[in-house]
Amino acid sequence: MSRCVDSLLAQTLRDIEIVLVDDGSTDSSKTICEQYAAEDNRVKVVSQPNRGVAMARQAGVDVAS
């Protein structure tokens, strides 16, 4: 996951919004997402109980600006 987010943050386009959705992960994904959000204001984190990929996608769309 970190490799993917690092790649997004390294893009030359600076006016981006990165929405990371934690869909009830039982590993350290939520902590990693929160660290990225604390370090870079372009990152938004959504945490929710596991509701499946479609609902996770929709949660990300709902907070995107």
Task: Describe this entry's structure for a reader.
This protein has three helices and two strands, in the order H-E-H-E-H. The chain is α+β, with helices and mostly antiparallel strands and 65 residues long. It has a two-stranded parallel ribbon with strand order 1-2. Helix 2 links the parallel strand 1 and strand 2. The model has no long low-confidence stretch (mean pLDDT 94).
Q: Layout of SSEs?
A:
Blueprint: H1 2-9, E1 18-23, H2 29-39, E2 43-48, H3 53-63
Parallel strand pairs: 1-2
How does the major sheet shape up? 2 strands, parallel
- Alpha-beta classification: alpha+beta
Estimate the helix proportion, in percent: 40-55%
Low-confidence stretches: none
Strand residues, percent: 15-25%
Rg (CA only): 12 Å
Question: Termini, distance in Å?
Answer: 23 Å
In N-to-C order, the SSE pattern is HEHEH
Number of strands: 2
Assembly type of the chains comes to single chain
Tally of helical segments: 3
What is the spatial order of strands in the main beta sheet?
1-2
Indicate the overall shape.
Answer: globular
Average pLDDT, rounded to a whole number, is 94
